[in-house]
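Re: the multi-chain job from yesterday

Posting the exact lines I submitted so nobody has to dig through the queue logs.
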Amino acid sequence: MIEIHLILLFMIAAAIVAVEARDLLSSVVAIGSVGIGLSLAFLILKAPDLAIMQLVVEIMSLVILVRATMRQDLPFSMSGRWVFNTFSTVLFMCVFLGAAYIALKNIPLGGGDFGIASGVYLREAIPATGAKNVVAAITSNYRLMDTLGEVAAIFTAVVGVMAIARRVGRPR
Amino acid sequence: MIQKGMSVIVKTVTKITLGFILLYAVYISLNGHTGPGGGFAGGVIVALSFVHIMLVFGKEMALKRLRSYVLRGLTCAGALIFLYAATVKFSGGCVPFGAFLEKSVSCRLFNSEITLPFCEMLIIGAGLFAIFVALVLLSKSDRYDSE
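And the result, structure tokens for all chains:
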């Protein structure tokens, strides 16, 4: 498992570069390399579905960042209120790390109630649904409500963006 | 900053490869039942191919090919068909047109192998490209450029 640690180190380094770089284009490229590293990590952890999805979404977000939002005239300030900013950043990091510690400590790995459900899925998903991909069998048969909610969330996001970001408002 | 499209080489290669990119998107989304892939990834590839057209040929060309109301219509149609197919699957193929559609026909028509990934591909592809178009048209330099 040395590869996953190497990729994690690479992602952390790229994230630090993305935060610290003065040039916006360098930051965007560094964010893209973080995403590519995440895709490789999914691939190493044997989740090719997630790897494909992460790859295409990363390309999409990179293109959107470069083409649509990266301008020279964006308001960007590095000065002022640094005490409050630093304090709120440290506070948020503490809260986030504490919550993540509690949540990750309570995940039962390889046992408990989750183990029962995943065992049933692994045994019965392929014969019951006729799919060869267990992930697709779960997301489009057992957990179709989740997929429906995901599609509803995407649809709401699209409608919201198109309502807010349209060019000319409708005359009243 | 924004040119009206790229060079002749890029335009020619784009004309050749665009169909293959769309074909690959359909393959990815319909292959989700037997291999890695799925409707979401296929939809993002569709959106990326239209973004590709827009970057290569300029935004007038892309928007002439694919109007804004077409995007909205595709997204809404995909969402409605997805909702209907999911309802059919929840109810075991009976509701809501159970009176004049056979249960087996309904189940075969609104299956999770083809219909659901295809609708998801429509929603994600048209929706993400619509978001891209909205963000591009919103940015300042383009607005001054086109007026």
